[in-house]
Each structure stands twice: as structure tokens, then as C-alpha cells.
Amino acid sequence: MPGMRGASVIVLAVMMGLAGCKIIKTPTAEESATGGFDPDRMVAEIWESKVVPYLDKRAGPLSEVASLAASNLEAAGAKYGHKEKQGSAPWTFAARLSGTIVKAETKSRSAYVEVDADGDGKADARVQIGPAIRGTAIRDSLDFVNFNEFKNQIEWAQYGKAFNTHVNGLVLEKLSRDQLVGKKLEAVGAYPVPAKGQLPLFVPVELTVGG
Length: 211
Fold this sequence. Notes:
The chain is α+β, with helices and mostly antiparallel strands and about 210 residues long. It has one domain (about 40-210): CATH 2.40.50.420. Helix content is about 40%, strand content about 25%. It has 7 helices and 7 strands, in the order H-H-H-E-H-H-E-E-E-E-H-H-E-E. Helix 3 (about 40-60) packs across helix 7 and helix 4 packs antiparallel against helix 5 (about 75-80).
């Protein structure tokens, strides 16, 4: 019958169309690297020449950065911070932290210390000491890198993670985890605007502990 023949043609066309579809797998970091995108190499190439000098120059004392951000976020961002122009990315600030460690959590992979910077005995910042580092504060604090230089969100995320991997291997793995409470800490790094009532979650690019 003509109607059935027409229906058969439509079904056949749909089946042929489905047969021609191909599911494209999201590339892993290793696969991306073999295709020319190597975020670890990219970070290593700019770390000493651009990343550390930029944050050293941009950073203000944490107390000053936090105080200005609380009273005038845009002014603090203009002086100490950076955020992507696209989307609704939060400000990420460069800061210099000096104080005494009042708490240390070193048993988890997301280890951290809390630091009293003003001498009142209370923590003013939480410093991530790895090996697992939350967020992408280092990447997000830099005004000389931006999302538009990358093919997609996956590469951008891998690039952010590469900064954390690099600082962990270069700085944080060398840090002794014994008897940290009471020791002095000096650091330069970055942190995103914290939620109200939360400590700044600080990621160091330079860190010394002792005394």
C-alpha cells in the first residue's frame, strides 16, 4: 500500500540517519596533551617568569585586601584582584599572608592550616597545603590568561588544575606536616571572595613555615 511504503521510507531514513551519528568522547588530559594541548607544560613555562612575579607585585597584606573588599568590592578588585569579563566569575585576590598557625588539618588529602594574621588568636585565613587543592584561585587571579584563549571549558578547567599540580610539586610537597601549630607562616598567593562568615581559602605560590 502507498501509505505503508511511505512509512517504510521514513523509518529507513531515520535508521540510516542514526547509523551515521557518532558519539564524540570528551578527551582526557593525556589525550589532549598528545593533541598539542599540554597544560602542565604551559604552566611550567610561565611560572617563574610571569606567575610568581605578578602575584608578588599585585599582592597586598591580607588584612588590607579583606578590609577593602568588605567595604568596596570593586575597588578591592581593581587594586588587588582579577575576574573574567565573561560570565559571572567572582573576584579573586592576590594577597600576602604573615601570621601564626593556630590549626592544622594534615590527615586528609585536602590538607590545610589556619593562620592568625592579626595576633588575636583567631584564624584569619585557611591556607591549602595539598596535595589536593580546591578551586582554581591561582589561574583566576592572573590578568594575562583568559578563557577565550582555550578551545572549550574542558581545556580551561585542565589549565586551572595544572596550576594546583605545579605548586603542589614545587612548594607544598616539601612542607613538613609535623607540629605546625604555633609556627610562623609567610606566604604569597591568591583566594576567591569567600562566602559571608567563611575564611578566605588561600592558595600559596610562595610559602615558608618555621620559627
